[in-house]
Task: inverse folding
């Protein structure tokens, strides 16, 4: 599930804007930036492949027990 909020106007995160068609481009840009940052910093729990359609650079399968073991797909 994707969540996207306008934190200036909705600091309590009550109105999820992820389904707003006019926001799909910036949402995709943020998802791509997050995926790149997570890969660059070796984040221990990246999103599963396909979580961000068209933007996820991950091609590894992660251990569900979070032992940090990475296996090539």
Result:
């Amino acid at each position: 599930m994707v969540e996207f909020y306008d934190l200036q106007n909705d600091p309590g995160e009550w109105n999820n804007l992820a389904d707003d068609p006019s926001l799909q481009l910036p949402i995709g840009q943020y998802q791509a930036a997050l995926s790149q940052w997570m890969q660059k910093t070796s984040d221990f729990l990246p999103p599963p492949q396909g979580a961000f359609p068209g933007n996820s650079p991950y091609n590894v399968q992660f251990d569900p027990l979070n032992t940090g073991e990475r296996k090539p797909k």
Summary: Helices lie at 24-40.
